[in-house]
Design brief:
By secondary structure, the chain is of the alpha/beta class. The chain has a single domain, classed as Rossmann fold (3-Layer(aba) Sandwich). The protein is built from 13 helices and nine strands. Helix 1 packs antiparallel against helix 3, helix 8 runs parallel beside helix 12 and helix 12 packs antiparallel against helix 13.
């Protein structure tokens, strides 16, 4: 009903009659109202680490839902898209009733005006500085503005560095990426294993395991006090072009994507190998966090052994 009122009011506001009745003020008044949500999830992770797949899976847990994507601000003048990302994008994320947001309806992603109330809201933070997010979360405004939540829960997700770096390098096509991504991944990995404590109460999601293991996904749902469902697991959203390798061709069949085999496309590229050889701590972290397939584990150890 609110969507219908918004559509009619917006059209009426452009007419002389609408102006005489003060309809523009009515529209602005409605659109300035906050959104009530039962549960708010702050999903934090690196770009190209399965964030959109995970966020859409989460949305499937609520019949009334919305997704707000805090896309990082870009700065010009760098040869690498990674280093062009401003890791302190303006906060808080502001959203109000009537603002365009992504929602999951009947297993599909659509853009629609934000309603007055939802069951589940997911706010996505991509490649942001974890110290910056943690500091902002302690301020009076917090990380979001305009979403009134009964409960709020941070979720930190991490993908193994070998497949993550391959996906990012495939997407960016920049020769300088190998100079940038190791520091990014280590910041998130150190938080994931507890070496840093920026978000001590965060639910931690191992993306590799989440993709492959239904029992693990069920466990994540339980941790978030959600009724488990996989009904949106197979969706590949069109955000940022979809998969770095497959785009959206596996939409409705996402589990067929070879997300743990991306590294094979880069295993013989000197810059890719050099990044791991120059950062043996990345290999150590990866072997301690992820149950890597035998071939990938052997590749990881070969990088570590060559140091």
């Amino acid at each position: 009903m609110k969507e219908l009122v918004s559509s009619v009011s917006t059209k009426l506001a452009s007419t002389k009659l609408g102006n005489s009745l003060g309809v523009p003020n009515l529209v602005r008044s409605w659109r300035s109202q906050p959104i009530e949500t039962t549960q708010l999830i702050y999903l934090v992770g690196l770009k190209r680490s399965g964030l959109h797949a995970l966020s859409f899976w989460l949305l499937g847990h609520g019949d009334r839902n919305l997704l707000v994507n805090n896309s990082p601000v870009k700065r010009p003048g760098s040869s690498s898209p990674m280093s062009r990302t401003v890791r302190t994008s303006p906060l808080p994320v502001s959203v109000r009733q009537g603002d365009e947001v992504a929602v999951c309806q009947s297993g599909q992603e659509i853009l629609a005006p934000a309603p007055a109330a939802v069951d589940l809201s997911v706010v996505l933070f991509q490649s942001q500085s974890l110290p910056y997010l943690a500091r902002q979360s302690l301020t009076a405004t917090g990380l979001t503005e305009g979403i009134h939540a009964q409960t709020a829960q941070p979720v930190l997700t991490l993908r193994d560095p070998f497949n993550w770096a391959a996906s990012y390098m495939k997407k960016s096509q920049s020769a300088d990426d190998y100079r940038v991504w190791p520091t990014l991944w280590k910041e998130y990995a150190n938080e994931f294993v507890g070496k840093t404590q920026y978000f001590p109460g965060a639910v931690r999601v191992n993306y590799n395991r989440w993709f492959c293991d239904c029992s693990y996904r069920r466990h994540i749902s339980t941790q978030l006090n959600l009724d488990f469902t996989d009904k949106t697991l197979e969706v590949v959203t069109a955000h940022a072009g979809g998969s770095s390798f497959d785009r959206t061709q596996f939409d409705a069949n996402a589990q067929q994507m070879a997300v743990t085999e991306r590294w094979r496309r880069f295993e013989h590229k000197p810059q890719y190998i050099e990044a791991f050889r120059s950062h043996p701590d990345i290999v150590e972290l990866a072997l301690s966090i992820f149950d890597l397939p035998p071939d990938l584990a052997a590749f990881a150890r070969s990088c570590y052994a060559s140091v």
